[in-house]
Design goal:
3 helices; about 30% strand; alpha+beta; about 100 residues
């Protein structure tokens, strides 16, 4: 389960969540958006469309996966979903900006 680690998103400030180490980044995004919108994760696709219309979940999950020879990739990825600008970085931090 992700946990809110920063502001609550009031007044347009970003809301930041941290994915659990054993959680996929795509699942962390869905959980963060569900918590921010008050929509159950299982209903997000009905409410906002499937995540794969915004980003390929498998690609997101593999982008920052641990690699024996090189470690994790550096950087972050940003996309729009459910009315938020969603940023995900290599540490599993998910930031939602409305």
């Amino acid at each position: 389960m992700t946990s809110m680690t920063a502001s609550d998103g009031a007044n347009g400030t970003p809301t930041t969540y941290q994915a659990d180490p054993d959680q996929s980044l795509s699942q962390a995004v869905l959980e963060a958006v569900g918590e921010a919108t008050g929509v159950d994760q299982l209903e997000l696709a009905d409410e906002f469309g499937p995540l794969y219309h915004a980003i390929d979940p498998s690609a997101l999950d593999s982008l920052f996966c641990e690699r024996a020879e090189t470690g994790r990739s550096m950087g972050s990825v940003t996309f729009e979903y459910a009315g938020y600008l969603v940023s995900v970085d290599r540490t599993g931090q998910v930031t939602l900006t409305s």
